[in-house]
Amino acid sequence: MIKFQFNGTSHGEGYSGVIEGLPDGFTFDVEEINKQLSERKRGLGRSARQTYPDTVVFEGFTNQVTVNGKLYFTIANSSVESRAEITALRSGHSDVVGRARYPSLTVREIAELSSARNSVCYVVLGAICKQLLAQMGIYTYHYVEKIGGITSRNRYRFGVSEKEEHFALLHCPCRYATKLMCEAIEKAKNVGNSLGGTVAVGATGVPMGLGEILPYDQRMDAQIACNLMGIPSVKGITFGIGDKYASLDGVSAHDKLEIKDGQIVYATNNCGGIVAGITTGEDILCHLTVKPIPTIQGVETLDSVTKQVVAQHYERADVCVVPNVGVIAENILAYVIANQILKQQ
């Protein structure tokens, strides 16, 4: 079983972490991890800070890492700065609830701990697991479904590298923001506002029989939901056809079965690749609801010192992170799947 810990803050020196439980002898490419870290920073809705590169360094290794016990890594913050205390509280950030839970910390200290910047560590872990899964013919993916009420309707083939030629090309909506979405993001940026949306995250090549029925928290969908809901800004998750189940009867809702190569398999995938906590052999597919970034202009709030109505605290911030949440979620999904495979071996 994979174990993972990290430490660090958003505007301090950076992050450090340790990973253990990966198979000894497994070799992975550090540059592939850096590519995922770069993907995490991309997009029109990102702040100026995202122009700084993120690079992971593994203790004792350079370009290739061969696992032999624990792995130690660091990611330095290119932007190290001291920021003023926050008193004009943001209701959608950790400002208020953090003070209730950690009264010995300042709002700024709590914001540093809760910053989505720490997702660089999740991406490192997941990018390693993506390489492990690729050796088994399992691949994760994501695509944007909606930003600011604008739904993606462009469908195209989203391919893979030459090393993965056997992997069937995926038919899916636009992976990143469409032109209309970009225009909406630009408009929100100009007025200091932010936008949310939905992003789909999936995995193909996952075999039937992965997961648990009991205990309840070890069901495959429970593990995925728990981990993906831990991403800052994610406020909801559904699998397969999700909310559509509420409008269907049992005859219409449940998947069909068929015989393929002498085996009983799922012919449809309404369930999103998981039934009774166990994978069906079809794509795992879930949809994440991403809230707008809470650091915005033009909102009234309360000051923690004066208790007076003031303008909410505002500083450099992203405008829309929906595509970036997809990158993070794809890597976390790879970790969950790889971890379950290792547990079942």
Helix/strand structural class: alpha+beta
Structural shape: globular
Number of strands: 19
The biggest sheet, with number of strands, parallel, antiparallel or mixed sense and barrel status, is: 5 strands, antiparallel
> What is the gyration radius calculated from CA atoms?
21 Å
Terminus-to-terminus distance: 10 Å
Average pLDDT for all residues: 89
Helical content class: 25-40%
- Largest beta sheet: strand ordering: 8-7-11-17-12
Low-confidence runs: 154-174
Strand content: 15-25%
The helix tally amounts to 8
Secondary-structure element order, as H and E? EEEHEEEHHHEEEEHEHEHEEEEEEEH
What does this entry look like structurally?
With 345 residues, this protein is of the alpha+beta class. The chain is built from eight helices and 19 strands. The strands form seven sheets. Strands 8-7-11-17-12 form a five-stranded antiparallel beta sheet. The longest helix has 23 residues, at 322-344. Residues 154-174 have low confidence and may be disordered.
Task: Give the secondary structure arrangement, pairings included.
Layout: E1 3-8, E2 14-20, E3 27-29, H1 30-41, E4 56-58, E5 64-66, E6 71-76, H2 95-101, H3 107-114, H4 119-134, E7 139-147, E8 150-151, E9 155-158, E10 170-173, H5 179-190, E11 197-204, H6 220-228, E12 234-239, H7 250-253, E13 257-260, E14 263-266, E15 274-275, E16 278-279, E17 284-290, E18 300-302, E19 309-311, H8 322-344
Antiparallel strand pairs: 1-2, 2-6, 3-5, 4-6, 7-8, 7-11, 9-10, 11-17, 12-17, 13-14, 15-16, 18-19
Helix pairs in contact: 1-4, 1-8, 2-3, 4-8, 6-8
